[in-house]
């Protein structure tokens, strides 16, 4: 039995039904209520396996067009191309004939945002909620303090960090502030005032030198904590060495990572450090698209 036959069963005619769904996935199973409506009569059923709406080969959500071979096996358009139009289940040609019933089923199933339990009320056709999830303002953010496992909405996280951190460092938009840190500490967190956004400055020591990154801990939602920054490093005494690095749009992350970055970093060679174990830096953070206060020099 094909995926479409498993999803639509019980003798209902697809041409005379509209299909819509509501519900949430549970930890035990992907339980989802499916309702069909025909001539004023409402019928309901439960779809326990949402993965029936995924491509059986790449396991991504099916999207139009959906193709089938003569034996009824289905595949998404991308897999048909990657498999050179040969069905991996039976080797028959696939990629010419569309399974329009399955296309209708997938597009008719409406699912909530994965962050619905945190307050998001957005609804999407199956599969499209994953695109929204990356930019959802209700996505959880994680405390950058070592040994703390707290996760919550960004505003709750900022309040939590202010209350639980004993050593606080602050920044003020449009002002230069010191960002001095020991390389062994690996991370310095600045907070915008009391219970404001958190900016994480991290350093990663490698054989050639130290990589420095700057990220705001916040969801990638439009209009949420959008900053730019300029970071500068100055060597200690002797031959004065300086370097600077900035981004017109600061990267936003939900959780700090201690993996050495591959992009968007400032690299300080070891010969700049003169054997010292700390970085003497200054940073100016600005709010994008907003009026800034005069820079404090």
From TrEMBL:
Q: Where is this region: Disordered?
A: 1-38
Q: What class of enzyme is it?
A: transferase
Question: What's the catalysed reaction?
Answer: S-ubiquitinyl-[E2 ubiquitin-conjugating enzyme]-L-cysteine + [acceptor protein]-L-lysine = [E2 ubiquitin-conjugating enzyme]-L-cysteine + N(6)-ubiquitinyl-[acceptor protein]-L-lysine
* Pfam family membership, one: Sina_ZnF
Q: Give the molecular function GO annotations.
A: ubiquitin protein ligase activity; zinc ion binding
> What keywords does the record list, in alphabetical order?
Metal-binding, Transferase, Ubl conjugation pathway, Zinc, Zinc-finger
Pathway assigned to this chain's UniProt record: Protein modification; protein ubiquitination
Quote the biased-composition stretches of kind Low complexity, using this chain's numbering: 9-23
Could you tell me the EC number(s) of this protein?
A: 2.3.2.27
Top-level taxon in the UniProt lineage? Eukaryota
**Database matches in InterPro entries:** Sina-like_RING, SINL_plant, Znf_RING/FYVE/PHD, Znf_SIAH
- Per UniProt, residues of the SIAH-type domain are 108-166
**In the UniProt record, does the keyword Zinc occur?**
yes
- Family classification: Belongs to the SINA (Seven in absentia) family.
User: What does the function comment of this entry state?
Assistant: E3 ubiquitin-protein ligase that mediates ubiquitination and subsequent proteasomal degradation of target proteins. E3 ubiquitin ligases accept ubiquitin from an E2 ubiquitin-conjugating enzyme in the form of a thioester and then directly transfers the ubiquitin to targeted substrates. It probably triggers the ubiquitin-mediated degradation of different substrates.
- Name-wise, this protein is RING-type E3 ubiquitin transferase
């Amino acid at each position: 039995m094909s995926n479409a036959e498993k999803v639509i069963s019980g003798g209902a005619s697809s041409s005379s039904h509209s299909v819509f769904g509501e519900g949430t996935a549970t930890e035990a199973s992907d339980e989802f209520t499916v309702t069909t409506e025909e001539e004023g009569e409402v019928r309901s059923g439960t779809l326990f396996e949402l993965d029936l709406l995924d491509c059986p080969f790449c396991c991504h959500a099916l999207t139009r067009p959906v193709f089938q071979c003569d034996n009824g096996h289905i595949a998404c358009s991308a897999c048909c191309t990657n498999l050179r139009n040969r069905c991996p289940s039976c080797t028959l040609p696939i990629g010419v004939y569309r399974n329009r019933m399955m296309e209708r089923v997938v597009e008719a199933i409406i699912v909530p945002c994965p962050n619905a339990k945190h307050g998001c009320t957005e609804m999407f056709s199956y599969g499209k909620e994953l695109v929204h999830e990356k930019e959802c303002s209700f996505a959880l953010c994680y405390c950058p303090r070592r040994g703390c496992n707290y996760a919550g909405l960004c505003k709750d996280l900022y309040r939590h960090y202010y209350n639980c951190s004993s050593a606080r460092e602050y920044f003020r938009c449009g002002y230069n502030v010191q960002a001095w840190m020991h390389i062994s500490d690996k991370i310095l967190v600045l907070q915008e005032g009391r219970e404001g956004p958190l900016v994480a400055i991290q350093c990663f020591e490698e054989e050639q030198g130290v990589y420095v990154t700057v990220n705001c801990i916040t969801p990638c939602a439009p209009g949420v904590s959008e900053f730019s920054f300029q970071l500068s490093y100055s060597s200690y005494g002797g031959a004065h060495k300086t370097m600077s690095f900035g981004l017109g749009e600061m990267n936003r992350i939900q959780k700090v990572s201690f993996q050495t970055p591959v992009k968007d970093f400032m690299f300080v060679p070891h010969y700049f450090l003169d054997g010292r174990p700390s970085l003497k830096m200054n940073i100016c953070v600005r709010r994008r698209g907003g009026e800034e206060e005069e820079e404090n020099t």
